Amino acid sequence: MINLHGITEDEIKEELLQLGEKSFRAQQILKWVYEKKVIEWEAMTDLNKEQRKKFASSFQLISLKLVRVQDSKDGETTKFLWELFDGKLVESVLIYSGDRRTVCVSSQVGCPARCAFCASGKEGLIRNLTSAEIVEQVYLIDHFLHEKGQRVSHVVFMGMGEPFENYDMVVKSIRLLIDPQRLNLSQRRITVSTVGVVEGIDRFTEEDLKVNLVLSLHAPNQRIRQKIIPYARKYSLEEILAAMLSFSKKTHRDLTYEYTLIAGINDAPEQAEELVHLLNDHPCTVNLIPYNPVVGLRLSRPEGERIEAFKSILEEGGIKATWRYTKGKDIAAACGQLALQHSLKTARKNSTELVIISKN
Ligand code: SF4
Fold first, then answer.
1. Is the pLDDT of residue 341 over 60?
2. Run of H or E residues at 271
3. pLDDT tens digits, residue range 32-41?
4. What is the model's pTM?
5. Is the pLDDT of residue 336 over 60?
6. CA 118 to ligand 1: nearest atom
7. What is the mean pLDDT of residues 6-33?
8. Ligand 1 center–CA 334 separation, angstroms
């Protein structure tokens, strides 16, 4: 069965023609699903009984099963844990900030980057998500907000996975999210975060999209970066930064570099100075993110004073820097943490799984 959220209007039309139906039904169905938020064929009253039956056996409306919803104590984030058709788990985070309703989506199950500070990376890559599975995360959270008279305003590809290792499905999902007949999100309110897949950055530069691009930098040099992100061995920092600069020049967009500060690893004053030197010709902002502790990882977050000192060195060196407060600490809001906790609980009941997890 084809999932309606993952295919374009033209693709829906092709399917309809094969079913012996008129192509205009595509708009009719999209209107029910996206405008009227109807997710049951039975409720689509301008389709006859036979059509509803035919469409129900050809098009899937929802494939994600909600396993858990968890609000943070500060009320600023809600985390959703989804089960996919094959039993795999992914998560999305809804972040409330003023009028903004940002959804942080996952693009893969697990992640090939294996960042030292991240729960998703612990298991490595399991599989790519389809465009439908990506769009559905946003659609279902928009549904959740709709009941409160709100809607999703921003989407960030910063959940589980490396988006550019699933390039085609990620770009397709962006095109579906901005479709005026669907969620109609503004391109400028969508952000893709990469760990530095050079081919992906280059391809993205050539897309006719006005989407933001963020690099997860996390280190001022290749040596430390490889320690933090094993995947970073694939590309030199030089190549990655050159690709980011080309993106900025071609799209006239400023760059954002994310830098997770981990005590004793990448938070020293001399590393801040090295970063100033590295980024001196980049029109950029560095987002400093104090490490958010993950169960089972022996890393720690630097003290506030140390973070302030790091930030000051960047600013004195002419680099814009922000220190991001990590929202939703009590609900494990860093990517992959909720899924990992759930896996660990399940694993305790299942010795085979426990062996697999403890190997990592
Ligand atoms: S931080 Fe992002 S890129 Fe790194 S392992 Fe986690 S999901 Fe992958």
1. no
2. helix 269-278
3. 999 999 999 9
4. 0.90
5. no
6. 6
7. 96
8. 10
What's the burial of 351, exposed, middle or buried (CB within 10 Å: 0-12/13-18/19+)? exposed
Q: DSSP class of residue 197? A: -
Tell how far the Cα of 117 is from the centroid of ligand 1, in angstroms: 8
Burial 81-107 (b: 16+ CB within 10 A, else e): bbbbeeebbbbbbbbbeeeebbbbbbb
Collapsed DSSP state (helix, strand, coil) of residue 50: helix
| 111 part of the active site | no
Q: Please state the φ and ψ torsions of residue 138, each to the nearest 5 degrees.
A: -75, -40
C-alpha to C-alpha distance for 167 and 165, rounded to whole angstroms = 6
Residue 7 in tokens: 């295919």
Q: Cα(179) to centroid of ligand 1, in Å?
A: 28
pLDDT at res. 159: 92
Residue nearest to atom 5 of ligand 1 (CA): 121
The three-class DSSP label of residue 240 is: helix
Q: pLDDT for 265-274, tens place per residue?
A: 999 999 999 9
**Residue 118 known to be catalytic:** no
Q: Identify the three-state secondary structure at position 246.
A: helix
pLDDT higher than threshold 50 for residue 216? yes
- Which position has the token pair 């009253």? 45
